[in-house]
Amino acid sequence: MAQYFEVHPDNPQVRLLKQAATLLEKGGILAVPTDSSYALVCRLDDKAAADHLRRIRGVDDKHHLTLLCRDLSELANYARVDNRQYRLLKSATPGPFTFILEASKEVPRRVSHPSRKTIGLRVPEHKALQALLEIHGAPFLATTLIADGETEPLNDAQEIRDRYERLIAGVVDAGACAQEPTTVIDLTDVDPEVIRQGRGNLSILGL
Which residues 6+ apart lie within 8 Å of 124 measured at CB? Predict the structure, then answer.
């Protein structure tokens, strides 16, 4: 049964987040709040957990998974970023944007797009999630928590626990999320391409 960690949204209890982080270290998957909707996360270097995450989400290896990073400097370690891309990233992070970029050698090939060698990256603006990332000390491999066969992301922690208690290791409850996925922007070409319009305001990027 999934463990349940109820934390304060602005002053999350470090003791509880450390317990949640321990589940990740043991190969578990967590449901965590973000600045858009809840997400499923696991360790980047855990192949079995990544495969399980895809099965829960109902997606194949062509579906872009996302790295949740603590800040822009950490993001730049996992993607090839030129000056033009960096300026766009700086204007929109932290925030509810996911950027598709060419993966660096720090990203295991099994989690990047199999043909394009790209990966989704983002820096969330959520205090509990940022605190959990700090404790973990590395990015999370993540996907928006949308139930297989549904179109809307889940945002109620108790409902997530009820539906996934036998499939995931834990749920971090910091209150309801916005229930709107991130805006996804492909930065691999000369001109940025909006793949999905979500919560992020495109005017920040001049798009």
Answer: 34, 35, 36, 68, 94, 95, 96, 130
Strand partners, 5: 172
Angle at 14 between CA 41 and CA 122, to 5 degrees: 35
Domain boundaries, the chain: 3-198
Instruction: Give the model confidence (pLDDT) of 85-114 as tens digits.
Output: 999 999 999 999 999 999 999 998 888 888
For the entire predicted model, the pTM comes to: 0.93
CA distance 71 to 130: 9
Distance CA 169, CA 12 (A): 19
CATH no. for 3-198: 3.90.870.10
Q: Are 9 and 153 in contact (CB under 8 A)?
A: no
- Placement of tokens 């971090």 in the chain: 172
List, for residues 55-82, the tens digit of each pLDDT value. Answer: 999 988 888 889 999 999 999 999 999 9
